[in-house]
Each structure stands twice: as structure tokens, then as C-alpha cells.
Amino acid sequence: MDTENLKIQIKTFFGLEPILAEEIKKLGGKNVEIKNRAVNCEGDLGFLYKINYSARTALKILIPVLEFKAFNQHQFYDKLFKVEWEKFMDVDQSFAIDSTVNSETFKHSQFVTLKMKDAIVDYFQDNYKRRPDVDAKRPDIKFHLHIDRELVTISLDSSGDPLFKRGYRKEQGEAPINEVLASGMLQLAGWDGKGNFLDPMCGSGTLLIEAAMIALDLPAQIFRHRFAFQNWSNYDADLFTKIKEFRVNRVKEFTGKIVGYDIDTRMLNAARTNIEAAEMEDIIEVRKQDFFESTKELFPLLMVFNPPYDERIAINDEDFYKKIGDTFKTHYPNTLAWLISSDLEAVKKIGLRPSRKIKLFNGKLETRFLQYEMYEGTKKLHKIENQ
């Protein structure tokens, strides 16, 4: 593997590709290209370590190592059996394969995953008279198999566990927002750690913690202890230690406030547990507060939240979204607010015209991430409503 000019593919969620591309450029990626749910770039081994450690909107970071065409399962197996697998792993290491398949020829991802596993195991058995173990939960080496029609791409997964597993989430609610999606939403909303931040329906606190990490410029994986690239034969432990030290030394001071409200004591306790795990007790304040009875306390203020929508948490109040709009208008003048929802009919009850709409997916749910600008004075408010 050429460690100076690695071709790198970074997976993300739909709608976050431009945010990820900007992150990668800032971290020093070359030839950055936006794809569907992914960003491609080039860099050296140190850069690969850096983006795994720092990129907030990356889900997994792949290094494509093999590409070929196969028109049936026998061709697929034969071509894989001929690969010199010791270039990528040792017979004593365990491995796992995850796969994405979009093909009329290969319809079942589990079947092709099994065939690839057989080819790797048979290769080692044939050449070394020993078989490596398959470990789906904690493999030493992780491969990613991608089939698009007849084109097969095999990549090394440098991350291992998906990068939304930051390591601070100890408790979760009924519908927690994914950490990568939360960070992407904050960056789409323009949060840069200047001013103050409010999540008025904070649940288990993911948006609050991600907001604090951005404000402090903490690396996204500061709490993570394990990456798949640490098991590669070319792993440079000294280089990775230097990269981590350099990133941690760039941590900024934050002078604003990050506040979360919720009406559910159980959720507030979960949020406090997660905030403590993220070592953010001095940065984030959470308290029991009904948003609909709250007034603006922080100036200037950015508000981002994930209100309940019926698919994930039942809403018993028909006027729920109307109350959000009323609270915006009467209690939060001169505020920029963003919310995410899959209930596109219900959000109309907010009674304000969103100034921006961004399509995102929360799990499998198609949602809209909506921006509302509240100005003081009825004239400006009337102008927004009639745009």
C-alpha cells in the first residue's frame, strides 16, 4: 500500500456531504470530491489518522485496495481467492466484512459476504495451512465490500466501529439523534462556538455535547480508544500520538453558554450522565424547563433542536407545533432557530415560513432541517410570514 498517496473514501449521511468536504479541506485533504453520501480525497497515512480522530461528520473512512468486475458468483470467488491477502492482514488476525450491494447479478449481500469470507479463509488455508478467525464484533481487520452492478470494490475500513460511536453516550432516550447527524446539523446551522446555544428539548444531550465539542474545537474522537488502522502492519504509533497531541493542544477557550431544557426528569438524568462522561459539566447546563413557558435569557442565541415527531415518540398534544411557533414569536425575538422533523404537515402549524429547508435523514426517516428567523417587531414578523 502506497502510504504517501492514499485514495480515501469517507462515508457520511445524505445532506452532510458539503459539510464533510469543508472539514476534510480544513484538515488538509487533497483532490476533495463530493459524492453521494461520501467524500473522496487523497492524503498520506498521517492524514488518515488525523481525519479518523478529528472529522465530525465522517461515519467511516475507507481505503479502496482492489477493484474488478465479476459477472457471476464463481468469478467473484475466483478473483478474490487469487488476492494476496497477507498484504492486508496476518493469518493470526481476526477479520470481518460489511457490505453494500446494488446489483441484479448479486442480489443478496449476506451471500456475497459469505463468499468473500470463504475466499479469504481458503486462501490462507491453501498457502499457510491455517485459517484466520472471523469476528463480527471486534475484528482486528475490517473489510468493506461494495458491489455496483458488476463492479466489485474491496476497501480496508480504517475506522472499525462507526465514527458516530464517540464514546461519551452512556444513556439514551427513546429517539436519540445520531452524533454525526447532530454535529452536521450544528454546522449547517452555522454554530462555531461564538455566542450562546440552546437546545430547548434536549433529551439525552447529544446536540449539547456536540455543540460543546465544536465550541472547544475538541477532536470528535477524543474519547475513543480503538481504531482499525491500529491493527495494520504499517501502523505508526508514534505518528498517531503526535497527531493526537497536536489536535488536543489546539483546544480553544469558550466564553458563551450551552444550555439544555427538558420536561422529562429521566431524560435530564440521562443527559447529565452523558455530559459527565464527556467531561463537560462546567460547559453545559441542563435544567427542567418547559420550552413553551420559557423566555429568552441568552444574547446572542442560536437554537437547534430535535422535537418529538409521531413516528418515534408519540405526541399527545395536537397543538404541539403551533405552541413551538407561538413560543418563537412571543418569547424569542432576534433569534435564529433550527429544528428537524419528519412530520412535514405538522411543521406547517408553526405558522412561520422557514427561511431555509434542508433534506436530511434521521435513521430511515426522511426529514427536513428548518431554519426560522425571529425578528423583533410585528412588521418584520409579518414580512417573514408572507414571503
Can you offer a commentary on this structure?
- GO terms for molecular function: RNA binding; rRNA (guanine-N2-)-methyltransferase activity; rRNA (guanine-N7-)-methyltransferase activity.
- Keywords: Methyltransferase, RNA-binding, Transferase.
- Residues 47-158 form the THUMP domain.
- With 387 residues, the protein is of the alpha/beta class.
- Helix 2 crosses helix 7, helix 3 (73-81) packs parallel to helix 4 and helix 5 packs across helix 6.
- It is elongated and about 75 Å long.
- It has a seven-stranded mixed β-sheet with strand order 2-3-1-4-7-6-5, with helices on one face. A seven-stranded mixed β-sheet has the order 10-9-8-11-12-14-13, covered by helices on one side.
- The chain has helices at 17-26, 45-54, 73-81, 109-128, 179-188, 206-216, 237-248, 265-277, 320-331, 378-385, and strands at residues 6-11, 30-35, 38-43, 60-69, 95-102, 141-148, 151-157, 196-199, 258-262, 284-288, 301-305, 335-341, 356-362, 365-374.
- It folds into two domains: 6-157, 2-Layer Sandwich (VC0802-like), CATH 3.30.2130.30; 179-218 and 229-385, Vaccinia Virus protein VP39 (Rossmann fold).
- The N and C termini lie far apart (56 Å).
- The protein is 30% helix and 24% strand.
- A hairpin with a 2-residue loop joins strand 6 (141-148) and strand 7 (151-157).
